[in-house]
Design goal:
Length: about 300
């Protein structure tokens, strides 16, 4: 009688909770003994892990009791020992998996600082641009050192900025959409509600910029545009002054949806269309959007 199963291909530096299944053979339809060898249940022990988001392991079919494992127990032990090898970096001990996760966090922060440098240059904010460049230099040096000490390959392509040189003209780039408002005539959004909304946006990968950095950027924008700008959205970044109005927050969320729909093209003719569309949505759903005042 033939019994079918799956073997899980071993990968280097796996997620710790997935490491044990790499290189093992599993029985389909429930655990069983075949020719004196015990095979755990694939459905119980391996399939749930394979279905987890981001799992890089994969399976291939085998005949239980006939198909030899791709790697011997000695080879598997050697692979796993290398994965679990620890090293010290900046006073802290890391496994190679932990180092890989740190690499990814550095790559994300490098992209973020590159985006900020582009935005600062477009706004004419030299201080913000220099600060972003300083942080970039520190992060790049840390990334290079970490990669060397851990033995992990560098992946420079993951640190490329998605933001091109910015313009609201016809020469190419990403359009910045601004919320224009009187600094004295608006109703601030409830703080608790605002914080919940900002936290939800951050979970979606949006960089919410407030405080001195946002004010410096928006002041530069206001000076260039010759009008007071309360908020602005650009790519995956949103800039807000302190205590933004309800209409400012919701308008930038609408612009975020426009951006994700791929409508922020580098063509000045589309700006008015997007702003009018946002205004129409705000008016239509005024009561639902926390009763935005008529003045806003």
């Amino acid at each position: 009688m033939l019994f079918y199963g799956n073997e899980i291909y071993i990968i280097p530096i796996p997620r710790p909770s997935h490491a044990d299944m790499g290189g093992k053979q599993f029985a389909i339809g429930g655990a069983r003994w075949v020719n004196g060898t015990y095979y755990p249940s694939f459905e119980e022990k391996a399939e749930p892990l394979l279905n987890e988001f981001g799992c890089l392991h994969f399976k291939f079919s085998i005949l239980l009791g006939s198909s030899r494992p791709a790697y011997s127990k000695e080879q598997l032990a050697q692979f796993k020992a290398e994965d679990n090898r620890k090293f010290e970096f900046e006073g802290k001990e890391y496994t190679r998996y932990e180092a890989g996760q740190l690499q990814k966090r550095i790559e994300s922060e490098v992209r973020r600082q590159k985006d900020r440098a582009v935005i600062a240059k477009a706004a004419g904010n030299d201080m913000m641009r220099r600060e972003a460049q300083y942080k970039l230099n520190l992060l790049t040096n840390k990334y290079t050192k970490l990669s060397k000490e851990s033995g992990l390959p560098t992946k420079m392509e993951r640190m490329k900025s998605a933001v091109k040189p910015l313009t609201n003209g016809n020469s190419g780039g990403i359009i910045a959409l601004n919320r224009v408002s009187s600094p004295k005539n608006f109703k601030p959004l409830d703080v608790e509600r605002r914080n919940r909304m900002f936290e939800n946006l951050r979970k979606q990968g949006i960089d919410i910029i407030t405080g001195e950095e946002a004010i410096a950027y928006l002041d530069c924008k206001s000076e260039k545009e010759k009008e007071y700008i309360e908020a602005s959205s650009l790519g995956n970044m949103m800039f807000f002054r302190d205590n933004p109005s309800a209409s400012a927050v919701f308008e930038e969320i609408i612009h975020l949806k426009q951006s994700r729909d791929g409508r922020l093209l580098a063509d000045a003719s589309i700006i008015d269309e997007l702003e009018i569309e946002a205004a129409q949505k705000m008016i239509k759903h005024q009561r639902a959007y926390l009763s935005i005042p008529n003045g806003d």
